[in-house]
Amino acid sequence: MVLVIDDEAALREVVEEILDLSDIKCLLAANGREGVQLFVENQAAIEAILLDMYMPVMSGSETLLELRKLNPTIEIVLMSGYPETTTMEKFSGDNHLSYLEKPFTLEKLILKMETLLGSGRS
Fold first, then answer.
1. What pairing do the DSSP bridges indicate for beta strands 26-29 and 97-101?
2. Which CATH architecture has domain 2-117?
């Protein structure tokens, strides 16, 4: 299962539909605070997190720090419309963190998640 944390409802819904094509189930959160709470409640089932960097209520950076306190090795994919170097430079050294530039294609999203989760999932 993938936890999708993004303040854009349309993006959350599209990501859920795309990942469903690969039989990857999703939990959806509209902001960082809600995402952290869903992670606490469903941690055992969550294999990876798609996290938007720029959101109201709780930024992606703040959310990432809270998630890392709960689980330092959960795979997290940061999503942003800003260049990868700008987004990732403040998190260097985090080996369980990757990047997906917005806007992304269906193929890029599926490839990223299948690479993280393994394509032969049951």
1. unpaired
2. 3-Layer(aba) Sandwich (3.40)
